[in-house]
Structures are given as C-alpha cells and as structure tokens.
Amino acid sequence: MQFPLVSSYLEEDSRPEAFFGVQQKRPNPIRDFVFRRLCLAYLPAEKIPFVLDGLRDSAPQELERLLEYMDKNWIHGRFLTPENWSSFNLLLRTNNDCEVLHNEWNKLAGGPYLPFYKMTMVVQQLCDDVTLTLKLLSHKKIMAHRKKETSMKNSILFTLWSCYQATELYSNQLLEEIVLELLRFFPLCSF
Hints:
Blueprint: H1 4-10, H2 16-20, H3 29-39, H4 48-56, H5 64-75, H6 82-85, H7 96-109, H8 116-138, H9 148-165, H10 171-185
C-alpha cells in the first residue's frame, strides 16, 4: 500500500538539516507525527494502542489512511501486534550483529554453498563457539562492542524507562520525552 501524500511531504527536502535541524523554515506536521509514531516502539506493548488513539486526534488529515492501515495490521492484526514490535526495556540492536554472524558462518564454511553433511559440521562448530562466547562474556573476559551513538541512545532510553517504571511519567509523557531527547541528541540522524 502506498501513501503518496505522506511520501511527498517526507521527501520535500531530503537534507538532514532540513529534516530535523534549526534551519527548517516551517513546521512539517506530517514528518513530526510520523516520527512520534516511530517512537511508539519504545513504549510498553500494552500501552501502545491507547497512546496511538491519543495521537490520532492530533494527526494530520492526510495520514488517516495510514492510521487505518496501522490500526488494522500493526495494532489489531492477526500476525503482528505491539507485543511483536515493542522494544520497551530492550537494548537497541542493529543488523550489524547479524551481518557479522553471517560473515563468520560463511568464512567457517568456506563459502555460501555447502553439502548437507559439511553444513551439519559447521553448525556443530558454531554451537561450540556460542557456548564458549557465552562463558567468556559471563566472566567479563570479552565485552560486546557497541557504537558510541547506540550506547548513548540506550542510555537515554533506559533512563526514561526507569522514570516511567518509577511512575514519574505517564505513557504519553514517556513518548514525548523520548521524542524530545532523541531529537535533541541526534538531530541529524534518521530513525
């Protein structure tokens, strides 16, 4: 399903400083609403439908079809619900972790195309490696590597999540704080 009005607003000016920066000449309610919608993933799964309903009142008219689609497929869908995509209280991850793992597998296997029996030996070796890595991590002999930006985002999110869990913030306040903090610390990043 395509949303031509939404994409035309989002692609209006593709320069990063125009997207979030101070040089922006006029507000873009569609971009701002879509960013808030993306930040819903940082809320507890059971609160997402209620917060989204509250956001619906402030949604630009052009996004009505998008909201209906989201409600039908991402909130009350048969296969996807907020429990599937909420990342509340979880460390941020990137695809880099998976890419590194796949590259290691291909190196260990000698390439992507394997006979079945060789593949079973490679899988056994990988299982042994996972066990060893788990032991080394638990004894703090090795550390997981995270980019500075990812660590900072995790720090911001976990600070806000702990305030929420201490009942210092309501769900809608948590969303607004997440939006403000991410925009403040990462104004030129796309999320």
